[in-house]
Specification:
Layout: H1 2-17, E1 28-33, H2 48-54, E2 62-64, E3 70-72, E4 86-90, E5 96-103, H3 118-131, E6 137-142, E7 147-152, H4 169-178, H5 182-188, H6 190-193, E8 205-211, E9 215-220, E10 233-238, H7 242-251, E11 256-257, H8 266-275, E12 280-285, E13 291-296, H9 306-314, H10 318-326, E14 331-332, H11 355-364, E15 368-369, E16 375-376, E17 384-388, H12 394-408, E18 413-416, H13 421-429, E19 437-442, H14 451-454, H15 477-488, H16 492-509, E20 512-517, E21 520-525, E22 528-529, E23 548-549
Parallel strand pairs: 1-10, 1-11, 17-18, 17-19
Antiparallel strand pairs: 2-3, 4-5, 5-7, 6-7, 8-9, 9-10, 12-21, 13-19, 13-20, 14-20, 15-16, 22-23
Helix pairs in contact: 3-4, 9-11, 15-16
């Protein structure tokens, strides 16, 4: 007992004289997300959640700053006509094209130590061509180890974004060239079979563990020469139900959540901001490009008549929806283009809330009330539309309820058939297997000409390996012509004039019913900084190396 007393007393004396131990800085972060990538290959699907995950482990050649100015991410200088890196050329067939030269930064490395070279960019183009041949890029030439020359078949205004993102030729090359076809390659690609392969990634982080439909764990890329990432491990975990995701955040099971429609709904963030201000920082960033909408399958005979689509646009009271569900933190979307963005024309037709006019249009289209009040066409078919969105998203489910009520008021039945995000984006949208409408948010670049969304060449089909984002199946020669002309116009003033035609056709034909522009709600714990990048454009993971503990 005496010995024990002496040891305890000595320990107490030592502790009394020592300074209090400082709290250990956090070196891991766990992110909750309501969706999970259907795959990790850059050319197989195009989803916001895949970009959110992958942007921590790779970089595009160029990107945007907060003001929409194109900046280099992994190149030395943005090509322009003025600096000579871009020039208009006459092609052998007499048509005009362009040559655009990008120079890679000299200190880029895949996470296995192999350098990122121009050959990786050229190989990326080769892979992309197998999935869907580019309508504008003729070839990508590795002029030197760092210099890439993009040969364009035509003049296009966004030539400074024409370089493909590098793919690791030393890993994917043998797989790609040994595959029987693009589908076979997609199944065998290391991006999908073993995304933990270090050599697939060249950003500040690399994927270390990948559990499909469960979690992704990132660790620092030891060969990254930019700003060093501050966390030794970042885990992104799927929690498909947004209510459960909020509970995980409040209990500390996750530290923060993915932003916008990838995480908590806006009403959840609004409520938390009033009660959890001592634990979290809440940032609401208005969006001027991302828009929630209904993509309509125009191959459905019930939706083929534009009068039906126009009536669907007029049946929705967007102002009340935004006010009651989002406390006016979203902007009403009368078009896919925000009025503050380049190319907008205030004379473009809008479809204000007018249920009486909507009913008149439907009557003009040949629909009459059936026994239960739902309209029927002359063939006796009920005007019943399936509506799909991501299951487990409480806010989208509330929006669906509003739409059901307002559409029923004009005689349209909405049948909810929600799916997990991985199914909706990976199958229903990508392969256009949905029957009626799909509700989701598009996140286009700031000044994009929507050629991939509305041009008939970009309707996903088996023949083009389901590439493209014209999920509606919209076919309009006038729109194709207007998009082609705007894409080819280098002069901003003349391109702005061409935008009027694009907006007019979209407004008249209503291939999609626009709802609202989605504000990005970012919730971060008080101990972390750098997640919100007010001065830069893109998802927070695009600048993940800036995340740090306070």
């Amino acid at each position: 007992m005496l010995g024990l007393f002496r040891i305890a007393g000595l320990a107490a004396l030592l502790c009394w004289g020592a300074a209090p131990a400082a709290a250990q800085p956090r070196d891991t972060v766990t992110i909750g997300m309501a969706q999970f990538p259907p795959d990790m290959h850059p050319y197989i699907t195009n989803t916001s959640i895949k970009e959110y995950v992958a942007n921590a482990a790779r970089r595009t050649m160029t990107g945007f700053d907060r003001d929409g100015t194109v900046i280099c991410r992994i190149c030395t200088e943005v090509p322009s006509l003025a600096n000579g890196r871009a020039k208009v050329v006459t092609r052998p067939d007499g048509t005009q094209g362009m040559e655009v030269r990008f120079t890679l930064l000299p200190d880029l490395f895949w996470a296995d130590g192999a350098p990122v070279t121009a050959r990786d960019v050229a190989f990326s183009f080769e892979v992309g061509q197998a999935f869907s041949p580019s309508p504008t890029v003729d070839k990508v030439e590795a002029a030197s180890a760092q210099d890439v020359v993009i040969h364009l078949k035509r003049v296009r205004y966004d030539f400074d974004r024409s370089a493909p993102m590098p793919l690791p030729e030393h890993i994917e090359g043998p797989i790609f060239r040994g595959a029987a076809n693009p589908l076979d390659y997609g199944q065998k690609s290391a991006f999908n079979r073993r995304p933990e392969e270090p050599g697939l990634w060249f950003g500040p982080y690399r994927i270390a563990r990948f559990k499909p439909n469960e979690s992704v764990t990132l660790v620092p890329n030891p060969h990254w020469k930019g700003s060093k990432p501050r966390f030794r491990e970042v885990t992104m975990r799927l929690v498909e139900n947004t209510s459960a995701l909020q509970a995980n955040l409040l209990s500390g099971d996750v530290d923060l959540v993915a932003p916008g429609n990838l995480g908590l709904t806006l009403d959840q963030v609004n409520a938390m901001s009033k009660s959890q201000g001592s634990r979290f920082d809440f940032t609401f960033i208005p969006s001027f490009t991302s828009y929630e909408h209904l993509a309509l399958n125009l191959d459905n005979p019930l939706l083929a008549d534009r009068r039906v689509r126009q009536a669907m646009a007029m049946a929705i009271d967007r102002k009340t929806l935004v006010a009651r569900l989002f406390e006016n933190k979203q902007d009403v979307a009368d078009s896919f283009k925000h009025p503050t963005q380049f190319g907008w024309d205030d004379s473009v037709r809008r479809w204000p809330y007018d249920p009486r006019a909507a009913r008149a249009l439907l009557a003009e289209a040949g629909f009459k009330p059936g026994p239960d009040g739902i309209l029927v066409n002359p063939a006796g078919e009920r005007l019943s539309i399936d509506l799909v969105t991501t299951s487990g998203n409480r806010m989208r489910e509330l929006v669906q309820q509003v739409l059901q009520t307002q559409y029923k008021a004009i005689g349209i039945e909405i049948v909810v058939k929600n799916e997990p995000a991985r199914v909706m984006f990976g199958e229903s949208l990508r392969k256009r297997s949905y029957k009626g409408a799909v509700m989701f948010m598009s996140d286009p670049p700031m000044d994009y000409v929507p050629i991939y969304v509305f041009h008939s060449e970009w309707i996903p089909t088996a023949a083009n390996n389901w590439t493209g984002q014209n999920y509606m199946g919209f076919r309009n020669p006038g729109m194709d012509e207007a998009l082609d002309a705007a894409w080819a116009e280098l002069d901003p003033a003349r391109r702005k004039a061409l935008w009027k035609r694009i907006l007019d056709i979209a407004a008249e034909e209503v291939p999609e019913v626009n709802l609202f522009f989605g504000a990005q709600a970012i919730v971060t714990p008080k101990w972390i900084t750098g997640v919100v990048q007010h001065e830069r454009f893109g998802s927070p993971t695009t600048w993940i190396e800036d995340w740090a503990t306070k």
